[in-house]
Amino acid sequence: MKPEAHYNTGPNELYLDVRLLQNLSGTAKWGKVLAVLGFILSGFILVFGLFMQQMLQSPGRAERVADVGLSGFTIVVYAFVALVYFFPSLYLYNFASGMQQGVQERSRQKVGKAIGKLRVLFKFLVIMLLLFLVLFAISLVMLGTGLSDFSLQ
Question: Where, by residue number, does the polypeptide cross the bilayer (predicted)?
Fold first, then answer.
């Protein structure tokens, strides 16, 4: 029998050497820590948004805020930022949990699903970053046109 024949696995098994298993397991652990910290940060952003809304509605500031229209808009912006930050954390958590389970059980299917969840995370991040770049470019154009209008006056 060839030495490689020992490493052939069935469709629900996965053979990985010890070093690769340790690296995958360590990556999943750090991914889970990062995801949990992301959940906590999302919660803090939401709580901070509620705090800011209350501050903007405090006596003495309410009149100035009403003119600008920030009182209700503040919580919407902070809730949106918290939601945008929540989803990558969720995708990362799903990847880390699936990878830990797949490595522990040495299941090819579970490791494959975990990698698929990591792919979803990367897609989300690419879309989010492209949107932010487009918004940044639009804001630069608006700033440039605003400055040119200001210099003409």
Answer: 33-55, 75-99, 120-143
